[in-house]
Fold this sequence. Notes:
Layout lengths: L5 E7 L12 E6 L5 H8 L18 E6 L3 E5 L10 H17 L3 E9 L6 H12 L4 E6 L9 H12 L6 E4 L8 H12 L2
Parallel strand pairs: 2-4, 2-5, 5-6, 6-7
Antiparallel strand pairs: 1-3, 3-4
The protein binds guanosine-5'-diphosphate.
Keywords: Cell cycle, Cell division, GTP-binding, Magnesium, Metal-binding, Nucleotide-binding, Septation
Family: Belongs to the TRAFAC class TrmE-Era-EngA-EngB-Septin-like GTPase superfamily. EngB GTPase family.
InterPro entries: G_ENGB_dom, GTP-bd, GTP-bd_ribosome_bio_YsxC, P-loop_NTPase, Small_GTP-bd
Amino acid sequence: MKVNQVSLTISAVAESQYPATGYPEVAFVGRSNVGKSSLLNRLIDRKSLARTSSVPGKTQTLNFYNVEEELYFVDVPGYGYAKVSKSDRAKFAAMIEAYLTSRKQLRGVVQMVDARHEPSADDVSMYQYLKYFHLPVLVVATKIDKTSRAKQNAVIKMVKQGLDLNQTDHLVLFSATTGEGKDAVWQWLEATAEI
Ligand code: GDP
């Protein structure tokens, strides 16, 4: 998809603020620093619409980006490292859980993992959680430019095994730096959101 128009509709802290337009939504999840903002910006060809966070775990809102009046990208706060109080963390965990489990418009989830490391315990929990709720998942292994071509098959194997990836879920190797994998991510988004 060629993106001309994209805007941040709302940084929501409560369900009452979610957009009521009914467009299909795709959520983006991953550990802080995995490259989520960079991926979002690369998908929409913007330099800094989605903030690249220098403070890990700072974003504690659900950010709804209206893409071409056709779908919403929903940027979910990064898990792990959150420098927030326990009570705030619990509050946001409840909000995210409610969003992921009951949002009618949610068509699927893009889960990012770092291509250089085995999926962490948090990554595995998140994937299992998404599968428990029968959400279609696209796993994106980020920062693949930091891995040599010769090692790409090993990355695929490591991520598939580490997450115990379902047959029905896809895996894309991605680089926000080179743009590798961008078209494959868009293909999945369009098919999943049916746009
Ligand atoms: P977020 O916390 O998940 O939103 O992660 P960011 O998008 O802010 O990225 C975290 C760090 O990884 C930043 O220093 C980025 O420049 C770097 N980064 C993100 N994506 C890539 C990538 O594809 N390749 C490389 N080499 N670095 C990346």
